[in-house]
Amino acid sequence: MTNLNQESLELHKKYKGKIGISLAFEINDKKSLSLAYTPGVAEVSRVLAADKENAYEYSIKSHTVAVVSDGSAVLGLGNIGPYGALPVMEGKAALFKAFGGVDAFPICLDTQNPDEIIDIVKKISPTFGGINLEDIKAPYCFKIEDALQDLGIPVFHDDQHGTAIVVLAAIVNAAKVTGKAMNDMNIIINGAGAAGTAIAKILAFADKNKHPEMKPKNIIMCDSKGIIGKHREDIIGMYKEDFLEFTNIDNLEGGLAEAVAGTDVFIGVSKADLLTPEMVATMKSNPIVFAMANPNPEISYENAQKAKIAVFGTGRSDYPNQINNVLAFPGIFRGALRARAPQITMEMKLAAAVALAGCVEPSADRVLPDPFEKSVHNKVADAVADCMKERLI
User: Fold this and answer.
1) 271 and 140, same domain (yes or no)
2) What is the pTM of this model?
3) What residues contact residue 13 under an 8 Å CB cut-off, 6+ apart?
4) 188-228, pLDDT tens digit by residue?
5) Which of 30, 100, 182, 252 is the most exposed place for a label (fewest CB within 10 A)?
6) pLDDT at position 208, please?
């Protein structure tokens, strides 16, 4: 066991977790007790019962998010269930507060039935201003998120969209560093699960929004069986069939080696050590590689250095260019809650990516800002809230 692991165990044991409940005002005499609870609270209840929208003015709904997981796909740990997921979801709630000023609470469910999860989230939604779905395996995560878009509050699967937003921001800045135009880029995404799907979709959607210059020339997606294309009969009827509409325009066939050859950008959301230096050598000059498998990336930092990658990023904090969702989700929910957004739209996601990219003067070792720069989360929140304003005008 590493020192970091042991220190983390000791810290969690000492504090019995990472989060707690704080009072908005003190309850220290009979008057404050009467206002916070009976008899005064009855009037607040009557106001909310008369119009549920009043919950945003008189309750925690305006600033509270539920972090919901079934523990079926916990990053780097797999299907470890609700108890295994609890420390991670609690950590997510802590990050919401630390970086976005948003109160969040972990809700770990002892079911992996998507219909039951949908029903539970619908039933608990009156309490919360937003729902952050987390570490739910594909394809169930797609079904669950889609079924909850009519709740009237934002429902956001962070493994998909948080990852996609941060990756897009990193690509925008890496393109500046390498002098490449995104319209001329060929991009491979290795891994066709939740994160890979969302990355592909946000890249493909760019030309339908205000940023057509951000849409790459071609996107190639690979799963464990190779390149996804029209030749793959095994994807018919699966969510992967949707990729055929906007990826692999040249109908390329083969495995990862064939997919990588001649590409500008490799995005890995798969497994460790799948990308070899020999494969990198077949990419175009000044290649960009974001190898985000955790805890070990698709190509090691040492091999990446030998391969002369122009811009290299991972999901790890001990290497340059950490690509981490914490740069996105606190600001996104903060902006969505402030604007009372009923959903988080693709326009909001693109706006968040553009705002995030604009937070740093990019270099080879710094294509993304540090999450501890508080202005980053404010800028992302402002960009998301402004999208809602535009929709209302």
Assistant:
1) no
2) 0.94
3) none
4) 999 999 999 999 999 998 766 678 888 899 999 999 999 99
5) 30
6) 67
* 264 shares a domain with 121: no
Burial of 295 (0-12, 13-18, 19+ CB in 10 A): exposed
CB 252 within 8 A of CB 229: yes
Average pLDDT, integer, range 47-75: 96
What is the rounded distance in angstroms from the CA atom of residue 182 to the CA atom of residue 215? 6
Q: How far apart are the first and last CA of the chain?
A: 56
**Interatomic CA distance for residues 357 and 187, integer angstroms:** 18
- What is the C-alpha to C-alpha distance for residues 334 and 339, in angstroms, rounded to an integer? 9
Q: Can you give the C-alpha Rg of the chain in angstroms? A: 22
* b/e 355-379 (16+ beta carbons within 10 angstroms → b): bbbebbebebeebbbebeeeebbbb
* Residues 147, 149: Cα–Cα separation, whole Å: 6
Closest among 271, 314, 307 to 287, alpha carbons compared: 307
* 3-class DSSP state of 353: helix
Determine the pLDDT at residue 393: 43
- 61, 92, 137, 379: which one is catalytic? 92
- Give the DSSP H or E segment for 140: helix 140-147
119 and 163 housed in the same domain:
no
Q: Which of 37, 210, 271, 374 is the catalytic position?
A: 37
Specify whether 339 is located in the same domain as 223. Answer: yes
- Taking CA atoms, 337 is separated from 5, 89, 135, 226, 271, in Å, by 35, 20, 22, 41, 35
What 3-state class would DSSP assign to 349?
Answer: helix
3-state secondary structure of 104: strand
Task: State yes or no: is 92 an active-site residue.
Answer: yes
Domain that holds residue 137: 59-153
Query: What is the percent of the chain with per-residue pLDDT over 90, rounded to a whole number?
Result: 87
Residue 266: give its domain's CATH number: 3.40.50.720
